[in-house]
Write a structure and sequence with these properties.
Number of helices: 6
Domain SprT-like: 30-100
Largest sheet: 4 strands, mixed
Strand order of the largest sheet: 1-2-4-3
Protein name: SprT-like domain-containing protein
Helix content: 25-40%
Structural class: alpha+beta
Pfam families: SprT-like
GO biological process, one term: response to stress
């Protein structure tokens, strides 16, 4: 997926107010090569440790809202800090990473830069953050409120039962009943049943 290195002066456009300076300090301290990626469905960001004289490399999806961008960047910075301190000797999302990520999050929570709903969800995850950036369902739900929403796009949980919706690959589904934590949906072409997360974004115009 194409990526671009963003001049440090433009990085502020991707971040919440009053966070550019502390973020820049971390990037300079650890000599991070930061790139902005286009939308990726599999990951929001990634980290690659330095090899020989190369810089640490972090990429973050540029289509994220400012709060999700910062949280994802801190997630990847925590990987960097963990590698600097422990190398390959610890698990990717083990206790050491969780401690480092929690400490980074706490520093920015203290600055009161997050809206109260996001801050509340971050506080809940401080002691045991998820392995995927912004992965906790409650956090994803509140972060979605700050996205630039497109017409006819909704979370699955927002749609009435029986609503037809489409995925980017063109497949059309009908929303069914909720089974435990996910919704059972029927693919219209094949009749197969699939389970969808309640916070999966889908395209649902009045007519498909």
């Amino acid at each position: 997926m194409p990526k671009k290195q963003v001049p440090m002066g433009q990085l502020a456009d991707y971040l919440p107010d009053a966070t550019f300076e502390p973020v820049l300090a971390y990037l300079n301290q650890y000599k991070v090569h930061l790139t902005i990626a286009k939308s990726r469905t599999s990951v929001l960001g990634d980290y690659r440790h330095k090899i020989d004289t190369q810089h640490h490399r972090i990429s973050v999806n540029g289509n994220l809202n400012r709060y999700a961008f910062l949280i994802t960047l801190l997630h990847e910075l925590a990987h960097l800090v963990t590698f600097e301190r422990h190398g390959r000797r610890v698990a990717s999302h083990g206790r050491e990473w969780k401690n480092n990520y929690g400490q980074l999050l706490a520093q920015f929570i203290e600055k009161k830069i997050f809206p109260k709903d996001i801050e509340a969800e971050l506080q809940r995850s401080l002691h045991n953050p998820g392995a995927s950036s912004c992965s906790e369902e409650g956090l994803q739900r509140v972060l979605y409120r700050y996205d630039a929403h497109k017409k006819h796009y909704y979370l699955v949980e927002e749609l009435p039962q029986g609503t037809l919706f489409a995925l980017p690959d063109g497949r059309v589904f009908k929303k069914g009943k909720k089974r435990t934590k996910r919704f059972e949906c029927t693919e219209m072409k094949t009749g197969k049943l699939y389970l969808f997360s309640p916070i999966h974004e889908v395209y649902a115009p009045k007519e498909i």
